[in-house]
Amino acid sequence: MNETPSSSRVHIGFFGRRNTGKSSLVNAVAGQELAIVSDVKGTTTDPVYKAMELLPLGPVVIIDTPGIDDEGALGELRVLKAKQALNRTDVAVLVLDAGAGTEEKAEQELIRIFQEKQVPFIIAYNKIDRAAGPVLDFLEKVQADPHGVHGAPCIRVSAKNRTNIDGLKEKIAALAKTEEPKLRLAGDLIHPSDFAVLVVPIDKAAPKGRLILPQQQTIRDILEADGTAIVVKEYELRETMRHLGKKPRLVITDSQVFAKVSADTPPDIPLTSFSILFARYNGLLAAAVNGVQALDTLEDGDCILISEGCTHHRQCDDIGAVKLPRWIRNYTGKRLEFAFTSGGDFPFDLSPYKLIVHCGGCMLNNREMRYRQKCAADQGAPITNYGILIAHIQGILKRCIAVFPAFRDGVY
Predict the structure, then answer these.
(1) Cβ atoms of 197 and 230 closer than 8 Å
(2) DSSP labels, 120-141
(3) How does DSSP assign 267-307, residue by residue?
(4) Of 134, 125, 133, nearest in space to 164 by CA
């Protein structure tokens, strides 16, 4: 079974009006029945996400969305969900009914959003098995045009007869950005044969029988850099380093045990956390370091948004729901309010919040994290993340970001 995390997969979203055959096309591209298909308008009521292998791309997430022309109060919510799905879409497929000719107002608005968010997209004219005469001539012409329509490549397809499905896959692959990220998690911070010590608490909040995704990915990145990853629990760190015989290049810790790990790590050994590494990886680091300053200006009654990118069963001492609010109240001494979101939910209106505290974002792709950061910047809402906030509270943030070249000259 392929274990590539969703955050590392190319996200391919299918968008369009109701009854254009989006779900049928999703099934044809996937080669399996991922989505429910019906002639009834509005069959897809919520975005459907499916991780799978798609040749020639490899690991992807396919997103089937509700129709963008849905009506009524419930329909508006469905349209909103479809547009939210666009925030994590790397390649969009706009599905049109070939028999309808040109796009309508709802589709023109969607094209505008694609272009505004710089999402590469393909226009797929579906149901060509029902088209005839001048319509077919028009579709053949736009498919052959290298400039396509609205600057996007076009293709004639039939989900029913599987016409040009392979061609659609090839066009998707051509638009997908599959190159490696410019920044790594930790591999660029060490040299071959270096030691990196990773501090991983094993407590009641830790998943049974495995490490969490940030820990797994960091270990893999260190190994790819020809370094050595040594994994210890927080109360084993001091003794482990005493017996290493060689100074580690870097200590990386779970942010929840920052205080103990900082005390047990000599000042001349760089220290950071998994969460801070992900802030850099997702392009959030500078904004998060600046945003955490808002913690010192909070007043009674202010509301803080704590946002997690994953959904999980909350433990009795959950970091997002319990520990962070407690630590923030103790640090500020203020009577504060807290709001919480998880998974794909993120408010459009951030004006009620004096500070946004985000998790590391290991379950969200870079496009989604950039979107959330931009929303905060556009609305003037300070944003930080778990690790940076905890380091700030502990008074060790300057030390924990000094490992990154951009911060070595005292930017913080």
Answers:
(1) yes
(2) -EEEEEE-GGG--THHHHHHHH
(3) TTS-EEEHHHHHHHHTT-HHHHHHHGGGGGG--TT-EEEEE
(4) 125
Tokens of 355: 């500070």
Query: 366 is written with which tokens?
Result: 């870079």
**Domains of the chain listed by start with CATH number:** 6-175 (3.40.50.300), 187-277 (3.40.50.11420), 285-394 (3.40.50.11410)
Q: What's the whole-model pTM score?
A: 0.72
Q: Is the dihedral of CA 97, 100, 103, 105 positive or negative?
A: negative
Check: CB of residue 194 under 8 Å from CB of residue 224. no
pLDDT in tens, 41-96: 544 456 888 888 887 778 888 999 888 877 777 777 777 777 778 888 889 999 99
- Do residues 260 and 396 lie in contact, with contact meaning Cβ atoms separated by under 8 Å? no
Query: Do 290 and 382 form a contact (C-beta atoms < 8 A)?
Result: yes
C-beta separation of 5 from 362 below 8 A: yes
Cα–Cα distance between 183 and 286 in angstroms, integer? 14
